[in-house]
What does this fold into?
Amino acid sequence: MVLFFTSTVVDPPVMLYMGKDKVENEDLIKYAWPQDVWFHVDKLSSAHVYIRMPPTMTWDSIPQALLTDCAQLVKANSIEGNKKDNLTIIYTPGSNLKKSGDMAVGQVSFHSDKQVKRVHIPKRENVIVNRLNKTKVERDVDHEQERIERIKKENAEKRVIAAQNKKAEAELAKAREAEKASRSYDLLFEVEEDPDAPKLTGKAIEEDFM
It folds into this structure.
């Protein structure tokens, strides 16, 4: 079971989600999307909260208000962290999560520590937590089917972009050929004047023509 929330501090709104328990967290780690960013209380047990970034957002430029929403949701879903002030929340791209066979259920590490950022939370802000909880939706997710559909959609979008690029390149090549042909035509009828030849008057030109 996955819990979904909506953050409206950015436009368009962004989806946040987390597993209901540590078993569900295992699937979320395995099936995280390329545009997902993972949040967790540093050095304490907590929920694994993800945001699904829109295409215009990158993980290292997430707006501060959205970071705060995610961090507050993580803190509120940590038994120990919820009782403490001055918490550090860590976050990293979902692709940076590393899972090995000897790890406990729900436990993760990172491929690169350089891709881990931190945000400081002085205290719980009930206004933020209550706003997010009002948007909560709980539903079952077929992660494998969702992954297949996502890949199909991404591949379709790539094909459209490739076709558009191919068409643009063909039009550009055609325009260049037309310009080249036009220049060749102009040169065909261009006559070079002899600077030493005498200039003919209008009457002389007529007589020369006769």
Remarks:
- The chain is about 40% helix and 20% strand.
- Strands lie at 2-7, 14-19, 36-41, 49-52, 87-93, 97-98, 109-110, 117-121, 137-139.
- The CA atoms of residues 172 and 207 lie 50 Å apart.
- Helices lie at 22-30, 64-76, 126-133, 143-188, 202-209.
